[in-house]
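Long-time lurker, first post.

We've been arguing in lab meeting about whether adenosine-5'-triphosphate would sit comfortably in this protein at all. Half the group thinks yes, half thinks no, and nobody has a model to point at. So I'm putting the question to the forum: if I give you the sequence and the SMILES, can you give me back a predicted structure of the complex? Inputs are below. Any interpretation is welcome too.
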Amino acid sequence: MLRPHRPLRWPHALQRLAVVLPLAVLAALALVGINEAGYQRSHQALQQLAHSQATHSSVNRLLQDMLDAETGLRGYLLTGDERYLDPYKAGIATLQDDLEQLRSLVADTPEDRQHYEALARTITTKLSEMALSLDLRRKERQDAWQFVLSTDVGKQHMDAIRLHARALIDSSNAQVARGQAEIERALWGSRLGIALATAVGLLAFYRYLRQTQALQQATAREQQALESERERLEALVRARTASLSALANHLQQVREDERGHLARELHDELGALLTAAKLDLARLKSRIGTSGPEVQERLQHLGATLNQVIALKRRIIEDLRPSALANLGLATALEILAREFSERAGLSVQAQVDEVRLNDAAQLAVYRLVQESLTNIGKYAQAHQVHVRVQPQGAQVVVTVHDDGIGFEPATLGHGGHGLAGMRQRIEALGGQWQVQSTAGQGTTVHAWLPTSG
Ligand SMILES: Nc1ncnc2c1ncn2[C@@H]1O[C@H](COP(=O)(O)OP(=O)(O)OP(=O)(O)O)[C@@H](O)[C@H]1O
Ligand SMILES: [Mg+2]
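Top reply:
Settle the argument with this. Predicted structure of the protein with adenosine-5'-triphosphate, as tokens:
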């Protein structure tokens, strides 16, 4: 009974492997994504930092210019020395640029813009006040400029300027702090993300290794299953072949027994009847004596017919059970077979049969092999020369039947004939070996090796 074949197990393993690979690709993509997002956030935060730094510097510059201008003016007011006005002039000259620069820096932040506008207003007021003091000093209106100098107006203006500048600096400091925190967060995010993606990647790699191992094991198991299935089938084929071969041997034996039985029946029963008929004919001949020529002729014809039937009976018996083999031995029986075939087929047949030790069954097998080989040569070979050779070789007997006919291609043999198969069957059943060698146009040789008996 053929067992149903177990289904292959790797598709399942392959499916699992197909899940792991996209996971690994996802982990790699996530890694790139997290890194990119972290980079973008850090980049923006750094730009913000640079911007805040620039605002800070710009406010500082502005304050410095204001201080320089005020210090220079005070020096001039107190001494009247024009040289003191240089820092004043320089401060005034750069103030507009400083204000313009600061305005562009705070343009995007509404809160800073408000501080800037208040600062700009206060600076304009302060500049007017300073210009007025300078003007009064130049016009030598001492009481007036000393009055302006002695009041708190200048200080109040400067305090207001500092206040607004401080607010802008605080705001830029707060932005710096936010930028730093943002960078810190981005770094942490990247760190965490990279750690996570690496863990997922490692997990995927581990799973991949496991799956690969499982796949290999499944393949090995499948291979093993196939191997044992093959062995089982081979054993089955061997067992079937052995039982078929036993059956064929049995049939061969039955056939030989039947032929022997038929030959005996023909010999004993038909032989006895034919002998009785011949005796009756002889008696009739003597009784009838010299009767008419027509009766004599009829009796003559009957005698001849009886002789033909007896000869036919002998031939059939001989064919069914070669009596020459039993009575005269293998060598003589084969020589007679060869001679009769040569006469019948009109070919040259050379038989060289040495004395060999073979039991009856083996002798019969050799006889049948040569008989079937000669029949095939007569039917197909179109040969001129035939050699039959039986010789001992060590513990074996080698039988060879060779013809120089048209040959054939043994590999292309169909299942039509049974002659060659029967030969092989007989020889192998006796523990021997059989082989046919033939090439189209180069004749045919049948070989058999049989173990010697006793
Ligand atoms: N000596 C030979 N020369 C050329 N062809 C041969 C020879 N012997 C056998 N063959 C070829 O081999 C085939 C098989 O021979 P085999 O004896 O098995 O069967 P068969 O003679 O055709 O039939 P069966 O023997 O059963 O009556 C033949 O049909 C023939 O084509
Ligand atoms: Mg044949």
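For your lab meeting: The mean pLDDT is 88. DSSP finds ten helices and five strands in the chain. Whichever side wins, do check it experimentally.
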